[in-house]
Structures are given as C-alpha cells and as structure tokens.
Specification:
Layout: H1 8-15, H2 19-26, H3 37-50, H4 56-63, E1 68-73, H5 83-95, E2 99-104, H6 109-121, E3 126-137, E4 147-155, E5 163-166, H7 168-181, E6 188-192, H8 205-220, E7 227-230, H9 236-249, E8 254-257, H10 260-272, E9 282-287, E10 300-303, H11 306-321, E11 331-334, E12 338-339
Parallel strand pairs: 1-2, 1-3, 3-4, 4-5, 5-11, 6-7, 6-8, 8-9, 9-10
Antiparallel strand pairs: 10-12
Length: about 350
C-alpha cells in the first residue's frame, strides 16, 4: 500500500494554525495577512519535514492556471542544431515554477492537430508553436484555444499571435560587413540563394532576410554581388555542387554561404580545386553549426541564438497569459552574434600589381 499523501490540513494541524493561514504561507502569500515571519518559517519547515506537496490541480481550479505550458514543434526536439531552443524554453519555464510539455509533429499536420488538442485537453496555460528553421507557416486553427506564441516562424496570413524570430536582416548585414572590412569589393558570390531576393528556397524567411541585409550593405558601399546560386537544399553536397559549378566558370574572391552546411561543401570544392581558405577565397556563413569551429580554417559565421530564442518565446508567452500585451502583437527579433574566426582575410592582389 502506498503511503498516504500529506495534506495541507495535516501541516496546519501540526503547526497549530488554521488551514487558510497554512495555505497563504505555503503559496507564498503570507505577507497578505501580515503573518509573522516566525509562523511562516515554522510552517515551511514543517511542510518540508512532513513531505507536503502543493496540490497543483486544486490550485489551478481556484486560480484558473495549471502552471503548465506546451511546446509544439516540427522537428526541434530531435534536431541537434535547434535543441537549445527547448533548453531555453525549459529553463525560462522552470524559473516561473512552470512545467513544460513537449510534443513534436515531424511535419505531419494530423499529428500536429492531435498534439495541440492534447495540450488543450490538459488545460495548459499557453503554447509555444515552434519551427526548426525560420519559415512561413500556416497557423493551425486550433492553436488559439489558449494563449500562444510563434517561435522561429512567421504566419503566411495575418495573425494576432506574437512572433519570436532571429534578426536575420541584421545577420545579413554583419556577414557583408565582414567582407567589406577585409577589403573585398569584387568577386563576391552567394551560395544557396540569390543574388535577387526572389531566388530563394520556398517559404525560407531566413534566405530572404539574410539577402535583404547583404544587399543593403553592399549597395551602400557601391559593391555588386557577382552571382548567386540557388540550391535544392542547404546541405554540404549542395554547397559542394554549387561551388564546383561556380569554379568551372570563374575564380571567386569571396563566398557568402547561406548556412554553414553549404560552407562545409564549399570548403571541399575549393580544396579539390587546390584553392585555400582564406588565402585564395574568403568564406563567411550563417548559423554557427557545432562543426564550424572545428573546420580548418575555422569558419567565420553569424550564429543562430537558439537558447535565447527559446527563453524569449516563453517570456512573450507569459506576457500574453498575464494580459501584458495590447493592440498589435510584437515581433521580437533576437540578435545573431558574429563569430569571427579564420576564414576571411584581405583579398590577394593580382601578381604584378
């Protein structure tokens, strides 16, 4: 037989106080009735000694809160790259004494619908609806049954939900500035998208916004992008193929790869052509993949702030839950830090110059 659960009444009786006094103290509201510090400390010590745990379900019925939130994503939980979003969200929830339920749809719309319904059935106080990479999404119709926030995603059609995304435009500016500050003004090619902002992978917000920032900085400096190659995906093999094809046409001085995995492939293509990074070709990229600092030379990249995204999403969700947002809902843009490493240097001057 399992031991009987210690109740609030048990603690109150042991302390010689009323049940309402014990309730106020153990819920952190002892100061409301000016209960003495001595009584509060005695109650807390007795509760711990007796193994008392608050009945969250009962408290939820009184307050209208369950102290739980949901985190529903496509493939964030199983992604080694984006998993820090979960860590940030968990820690932000834990700081508030809130439990986080995690569900993953793997891109299946029926499973996504069922996960959201399951969260609502458990009466979560709110839901973070997340994507592994920044993209345009169709907001599920049943998401708004509780307070909600979009994380790493923007709605395809107008939506009343707050949005938390990386500041991809400023990231594009940072990547372009790295090359300009190193003295690059020509022979700059894009791998993965561009050169126009319409020549990007479908629904990729990151590609569009990175290109906006890149083009803005180069335009201000009077620098033209030599070419851009859209790829079927942003994986190493696509970076290798695009860079190999580029090298058959021309000799670049610098590459901006739209993510690090493309850059890994570009490194291999440059090595196959007996070109060295950065002496012959400078390379700058995005994301700060765990392997970026292991490349030789180490890859200069603009990092995706996964942990900060997860924390900010929970902050924004609680602003919704607590009614702290009014009118047009905000778009929270989280800074993407530059990781300056060894893959960019001044362009080599032509022989005889």
């Amino acid at each position: 037989m399992s031991p009987r659960r210690v109740t609030l009444a048990d603690v109150a009786k042991a302390a010689g106080v009323s049940r309402s006094t014990a309730s106020l103290v153990l819920s952190g509201r002892g100061a409301e009735l000016r209960i003495s510090d001595e009584v509060q400390e005695r109650l807390k010590a007795l509760a711990e000694e007796m193994g008392y745990r608050r009945n969250i379900v009962s408290a939820g019925l009184r307050t209208g809160r369950t102290l739980t939130i949901g985190f529903v994503s496509d493939t964030v939980a199983t992604s080694r790259l984006a998993g820090d979003m979960i860590k940030g969200a968990i820690e932000a929830a834990r700081d508030r004494g809130v439990l986080l339920f995690i569900g993953e749809s793997e891109g299946d719309s029926k499973l996504e619908h069922a996960l959201l319904e399951g969260m609502h059935d458990r009466q979560v106080d709110g839901i973070v609806f997340a994507s592994m990479y920044t993209r345009r999404v169709t907001v599920p119709g049943n998401l708004r049954a509780a307070s909600a926030v979009l994380l790493n995603a923007v709605p395809k059609t107008p939506s009343p939900l707050p949005v938390v995304v990386p500041d991809e435009v400023e990231a594009g500016r940072a990547a372009a500035r790295v090359l300009l500050e190193a003295g690059h003004r020509d022979g700059i090619h894009l791998i993965g998208a561009g050169p126009g902002i319409r020549n990007v992978p479908r629904d990729s917000v990151a590609a569009v916004e990175r290109l906006v920032g890149i083009r803005e900085v180069f335009a201000e400096a009077g620098v033209e992008i030599a070419s851009g190659t859209r790829t079927a995906d942003w994986l190493p093999e696509h970076g290798f193929e695009a860079t190999s094809a580029l090298l058959r046409r021309t000799r670049p001085r610098a590459l901006i790869c739209l993510n690090d995995r493309l850059a890994f492939g570009a490194y291999q293509a440059l090595d196959d052509a007996s070109l060295r990074v950065p002496d012959d070709v400078s390379v700058v990229s995005f994301d700060d993949h765990p392997l970026a600092s292991w490349m030789r030379p180490q890859l200069t990249t603009v990092a995706l702030p996964y942990y900060e995204l997860g924390r900010r999403a929970v902050d924004a969700l609680f602003a919704e839950i607590n009614g702290e947002t009014t009118g047009e809902k905000p778009v929270h843009r989280i800074p993407m830090p530059l990781r300056t490493r060894a893959s960019v240097t001044r362009p080599r001057q032509p022989e005889g110059s």
